[in-house]
Amino acid sequence: MGINIYPIHLGFDCCYLIQDKGIIVIDGGTPGKIKAFLKGIGKLSIRPEQIKLIVITHGHWDHISSVKDIKEKTGAKIAIHETEKEWLEKGLKSMPPGVNLWGRFLSKAMTMCLPLIKVPAAPVDIVIGNEGFSLAEYGISGRVIYTLGHSSGSVSVLLDTGDAFVGDMAMNEFPLTLRPGLPVFAEDFDKLQESWLMLLNQGVKTVYPSHGKPFPASIIRGLLS
Ligand SMILES: [Zn+2]
Ligand SMILES: [Zn+2]
Asked: Given a cut of 90, is residue 1 above it in pLDDT?
């Protein structure tokens, strides 16, 4: 059996379920999406307790707000980079600046909406350091790699197949972007591009953004060169 990759839409973005010898989930969506999550895994005939790990690509509200409920239903461990551990444990909200005119507009508009959003705090089980970690013990042929830039605690999951789950290091969905490419928000756009070069050099073939459909890594390579 090869590796199966399933997107599950959790509101404004999607999480990805990866099924190899084990099953993990990447990201935890917007608030109140536990029913959508359970329905999504139900369609795949996966029971909640089969999921052993939730890797959070970064601590922005749209990636962590249903993770408390997902953890409670599945019993899975939560892994997040050390820089953003507190964001999840305290339910903090951060919004990065735009990197272009449209990004700046959207960032301002979203910042105004932030007070309306409640992020349920959740306990973190695995604190990811800058060295990342192998997913072998979870039955997944791949690893978690530190890829700062969109936020200072952003990580990506790179499978041995070349499939990369990059959170918001790339975007491919209206109204964020009209075409696949780099994100419209980033704390540090230079670092983001450095992280991309490092990641591409490790053999990324297909990019799976949290917002939008997967696309070939050659598109990102073209944008960086
Ligand atoms: Zn983000
Ligand atoms: Zn996002």
From this structure: no
- Among all bound ligands, the one having the nearest atom to the CA of 152 is 1
- In the three-class reduction of DSSP (H, G, I as helix; E, B as strand; rest coil), residue 162 is classed as coil
CB-based neighbours (< 5 A) of ligand 2, an ion: 62, 168
How far, in Å, CA of 70 to CA of 50, rounded? Answer: 12
Q: Could you report the per-residue pLDDT of 39-77, keeping only the tens digit for each?
A: 999 999 999 999 999 999 999 999 999 999 999 999 999
Measured in angstroms, how far is the CA atom of residue 176 from the centroid of ligand 2?
A: 10
Rg (CA), the chain: 16
Which ligand minimizes its atom distance to the CA of 171? 2
**CATH class, 4-224 region:** alpha beta
DSSP H helices in the chain? 34-43, 61-64, 67-74, 85-90, 101-113, 189-200, 217-224
> Is the pTM of the predicted complex or chain greater than 0.90?
yes
Cα(126) to centroid of ligand 1, in Å?
Answer: 20
Residue 32: predicted pLDDT: 96
